[in-house]
Give the backbone structure.
Amino acid sequence: MKKLLILALSIWFSNGYSQQGGMWIPSLLKGQNEKEMKNLGMKISISDIYNVNSSSLKDAVPQFNGGCTSEVISDKGLLLTNHHCGYGQIQAHSSLQNDYLTNGFVAKNFSEELPNPGTDATFIVRIEDVTTKILKGTENISSLEEKEKLIQKNISETILNSPKESWQENRIKTFFKGNQYLLFVVEVFKDVRLVMAPPSSIGKFGSDTDNWVWPRHTGDFSIFRIYADKNNRPAEYSKDNIPYKPKHFFPISLKGIKENDFTFVFGYPGYTNEYLPAIAVEQLVNQINPARVAIRDAILKIQDEYMRKDPQIKIQYASRYARTANYWKKWKGENLGLIKTNVIDIKKKNEKIFQEKAVKNPKYASVLAQLTEKYKEYEPYNLAMTISQEVILRNNDLLINAYKINDLAKIYEYRGAQSFTDRKANLLKDIEDIFKNYNINVDKDVFEKSIVIYSELMPKQFIPEILSKSFDSKAITNKIYSESALVSYDKIKNLLSGTPEEIVKKINNDVGIKFVNSLTTIFYDKVMPNYQKITSEINELEKIYMEAILEYSKPSDRVFPDANSTLRVTYGKVKGYSPSDAVYYEPITYLEGAMEKYIPNDYEFDIPEKLRELYEKKDYGMYGYKGKMPVCFIATNHTTGGNSGSPAIDAYGNLIGLNFDRVWEGTMSDIYYSPDICRNIMVDIRYVLFVIDKYAGAKHLIEEMKIIK
Ligand code: ARG
Ligand code: GLU
């Protein structure tokens, strides 16, 4: 009886009914994935999703500005993405007088749409496997360095020689840790204008308290439009550009979703690490994540205090605060999930099974043991790298600028006057931008706290003299902030004027630069060389380990390549979950829930009056469902950072939602996906349209769309 049950269960599993998780390459879905997707309820075919000979869904899913996903929703290039993806653009157009972050924005016609220099939307034209070309000649090279050089050369040549149109670009990315290479022919549109943004009290409702948390009630969307030249091709911004005519755009379904409905998500997941050995997960849980969290804990506290007191600082720091808080919170959730799910033990068990097979093959027999040894060696360098990045390169403008200017001086030394002058011009532009959102008091407090934490967390052997034993952080900070040129744009401009020799001399004499120099000297001498050497050794071992995993796997093991910011499909079902004993979360939220969270004038949970009125009158138009307004829903799609703004699609290829987050208990899915607790969070497309139409009164945008009732 028991045997029968196991048999039945395994047939059920291998049928794909519960087989979810994974981020799949859209050009390779035929076969296993297709079968699973159909089993889960998909009604369209794979060639409707990805097709190079005729238009398909992929033609409506551009990457948004490198880090997010977006989708085209009209034949005039109307583009939907998250509010948090367009946040920087909305902020750039905002001022205390015209505060689009707070009040929202609607362009009433094409001429009111706001250009965003530097923002782009990138479409995939086609994907090709170029593995043999890239690995050609590398088989018998034993030196890692030589091998890497040849691979880079093969990549450059293949990019240069692969056919494409003059307005397109070739890009190559590696998959399965160097075991596969794919070429992407892309079109990069550079004229992307802001069309509409809801107020933050809708688009960012719940803000950081609700971030990474279910149940959620955020209308996390914003709308842009892609413009093209008169031939419908990519072009820099010009007032003569015209709205882009896409090969495909998403019809929008108002039919709604219910538990167990099939959904899939199409987008550009950034980075996952699903094949880490147990020891690396252990280091992540015990060292890396705690260090990152501790640093950001302190910095966020300082910024938050200033932002609450001063509305000007609040606008200036809003975007970077959100960015810093986002991963701070994610790493906390990730650690909880990894621990609770016993991922280290699961990995150890799987490694045992792997090893039983691997011993029989000399090529793979020792790879896991070697990898484990390497990770042990890696530990202090990886930790030092993490801390340096967080402290020097991320959170404090003085240190960031000092680091960059220091680099500039080195360029003169190594590459001469011309490189120096070119780089200087670019650098000044960057620095000018940084100072637009700078407040010296905030920066100073962050600096002082940062150097204290640096001295506490950094492995002893990497701490410079000036921060060893007891040092007076206040005195150091005061001296630097009163004497260094790095505290204002004008002073920096002044510092960087004169002949290259004069500039380099001034740079080397600045107290701020001297300070950062004392940190980076040790870093470059003692951390960097070892970090790089071990990283490339680990990469090589991981390539072999991955090759073995692929060799030992059956299709039903569903081995997929880690995310690498390329276009992927992930699929699953609308589903609630049970994160702990006696707790069950329903998969759909309604506006009622937003009202339950409503706190008048709170910076996270305020609700605009107009929205409250619509709620009181239940004035939901064609977007409501049984007298209620659906807001967000969750499903088992395996997503990560970069999937923000991704279309959530129904069985027929229609748009039903917009991905924007994951649930707290499941953020560990970047390392290990568990179908029990990993869920992606989407805003229901009906809520998006309701806000556009009923709240913002932008009927003209609704009329552009193709709506399925
Ligand atoms: N957690 C989501 C993501 O990773 C939303 C981030 C929005 N930022 C925020 N601090 N609320 O992008
Ligand atoms: N909010 C994330 C992003 O910006 C998506 C959520 C996630 O990491 O799953 O891409």
